[in-house]
Amino acid sequence: MSGIVGQNLGRGSGLIKAGAIDDDSVTLAKMAGLARGKLIYGDTSGDPAALAVGGADEVLTHDGTDFDWAAASGGASLRPNAQPLIINGDMDVAQRSTSVASITTSGYNTVDRWYTYIITGGTWTQTQEALGTTDQATTGQKTALKMDNTIANGSLSATSIVAIWTILEAQDVQLIKKGTSAAETLTLSFWVKATKTGTNIARLYAADSDRSCCQAYTVDSTDTWEKKVLNYPADTTGVIANDNGNGIFIIFGVAAGSNSTSGTLATTWAADAGANNFVGQVNNADSDSNNFHITGVQLEVGTYTSSTIPPFQHESYGENLFRCQRYYQIIADGSAHCIGLTTAYNATTSYSIVKFITEMRSDAVALEYNSGSNYYALLCENSNTGFDDFATDQTRTNMMRLSDDGSTGKSQGASGWFECSAGGRVAVEDEL
How far is CA 290 from the centre of its chain? Predict the structure, then answer.
């Protein structure tokens, strides 16, 4: 074959590779049947009948002399999803806080979409860690989630566990075709740094079918960023409902007691059994000098190696934040931040309809706010009336109705607005 001649054939069309093709020898009729977005080429004779199209799982290769089609590494030339399956895998968005100390129980603390699960696993400080230029050059990321042990637990009880996880919404993982004969394999990739070397476990859990699959990886060098790539087989059993509920949990073990380590590690998909979930997991909680850091977490459809894994799929901060706000969003935070316009229903109650930044996951939106003396104010009829608490009696995926806790002396129908005073903060949450 000879060189490439590129021509735009219209939006979505591919590139023509041609040899000595005569004028008008490639007709529209012959081109019409070609799939959009494919690369086509002809042989050196210029015979239009020799036109060919690369297969769905092929990429164009070049051996230094010529072009040809070859099977794509990992089994697919393009990601089947337009956006990363994992939201905030770069740990870049942290709406709640950038640092929380004295963590001994489960909950969302810092980076969005990442939950901390702790049962008698010591005391921790969690931060959204800003990476220096050397670490950025290594990982390709500017932030990480850091777990810093501050009070150790060197003798874990049977029920002890420390883990961090994110949950993928069920309707967003239908592309893996779980429970069908065409179920897809998965590859999990991430950067990890830990003080303690040894075996750690990364577990996938499908909630609807109560099935797990776990893979072990090794931290080889203390306090050194290492990239891990783990393969998970396809699961032709069970289902993931096509809804807005729990789809797949991606769980990273940090420490685990015997209730989670006394069995055989479930390296193929199987009915969930607690004893098989974290077999071999080192105790990263056994010293108050221990840290555990993670970033660049990505889940890909297909089987990849460290050489073939696609690069981390970076989004802009705005795109990442917008996707996080489906599950948690701040309405107002800090002095003089407006919460919403109000109307006095009567002399003692004012209502505000607050529209959300983006549609949230469900109607079961929970109001979250700091409660304190005069943390909030109603500005109405040329007065500023402080109050402590909010009530919400109506929520939808795109709005909620707020009322104050009984400000008095307002005229029915009077307009105003709610705002934060010092210490006030209002958010809404609809996490999986």
Answer: 26
Domain with CATH 2.60.120.260 in the chain: 99-323
Interatomic CA distance for residues 401 and 355, integer angstroms: 9
Q: Which residues contact 336 (CB under 8 A, 6 or more apart)?
A: 419, 420, 421
The b/e string for 138-159 (b: 16+ C-beta within 10 A; e otherwise) is: bbbbbbbbbbbbeebbeebeee
**What are phi and psi for residue 423, nearest 5 degrees?**
95, -15
Q: What is the pLDDT of residues 153-179, one digit of tens each?
A: 999 999 999 999 999 999 999 999 999
Q: Model's pTM, two decimal places? A: 0.84
- Going through 63-142 in order, the beta strands assigned E by DSSP cover 67-71, 99-103, 107-108, 115-119, 123-130
Cβ atoms of 186 and 175 within 8 Å: the answer is: no
- 75 band by pLDDT with thresholds 50, 70 and 90: very low
**In CATH, which superfamily holds the domain spanning 99-323?**
Galactose-binding domain-like (2.60.120.260)
pLDDT of 43 > 90? The answer is: no
Cα dist. 56→48, 78, 263, 325 in Å? 22, 9, 42, 35
- From CA 257, how far away is CA 156, in angstroms rounded? 5
33-38 contacts: CB < 8 A, separation 24 or more? 36/12, 37/12, 37/13, 38/14
The pLDDT score that the predictor gives to residue 66 is 58
